[in-house]
Amino acid sequence: MNSKVELITPPNRIKEKVGSGGIDKDALKQAEAHMTHNEKDFLPIIDEHMDRIALALQDTKRKPQDVILDLTSSVYLLKSKGGMYNYPLITDVSSLILNFLPRVERIDADILEIIAAYQVTVRAIITRTLRGPKTAEGQSLITALEHACQRYYKQHFIKV
Fold first, then answer.
1. Is residue 46 in a domain?
2. Looking at residues 41-69, what average pLDDT do you find?
3. Whole-angstrom Cα distance, residue 103 to residue 154?
4. Helix (H) or strand (E) run with residue 64 in it
5. What pLDDT was estimated at residue 9?
6. Which of 2, 35, 93, 121 has its CA 20 to 30 A from that of 9?
7. Residue 29: CA atoms inside 13 Å, Cβ hemisphere, count?
8. Is residue 48 part of a domain?
9. 120 near 70, Cβ under 8 Å?
10. What does the pLDDT look like over 124-138, one tens digit per residue?
11. What is the span of the domain harbouring residue 90?
12. How confident is the model over 94-103, as pLDDT tens digits?
C-alpha cells in the first residue's frame, strides 16, 4: 500500500489581512511603565466615582434599587481600574463591597456607614500609596471593612 499523504495547508485569511510580526518590545515596555507609574491619571477617576457615590446617597427620593445600581456601577469601575493602575488593594476592597451591595434592600444608616467606610478606605489607600494587601496596613483596612459587612449581615439576619 502506497501511503503518500499530501498535506494541504488552507490559506489563513486573517493572517493575510493582519500581516506578520508582533508588538514592538519598546512600545510594550513603555505601555507597561505607563500603567505601573501613572497614578496621576487614576486620581481624577477616583474623585469622579467618589463624587458619584456621594450624589447617589444624597438623593433620598430615589428607589433603593436605583441607588444601589449607581453605587454598584461606580464601585465596579473602581475595582477594574484599581488593577489597571497597579492598586490591587482598591480592587480587593471594591470587590468586597460589590459582594455586599446585592444583599442590600434599603438604604439606612448602617448602609451609609459602610459606604462611608469604603470611601475612607479608598482614600486612605491612595493617600498612603498602598499597593497591595500584603502589608499589615492594607490587610487591616480590608479586615475592618469585612467586619463592618459581617456586623450588618448579623444585625439584619442575612445569611452569607
1. yes
2. 89
3. 12
4. helix 64-84
5. 83
6. 2
7. 3
8. yes
9. no
10. 998 888 876 678 888
11. 22-155
12. 999 999 999 8
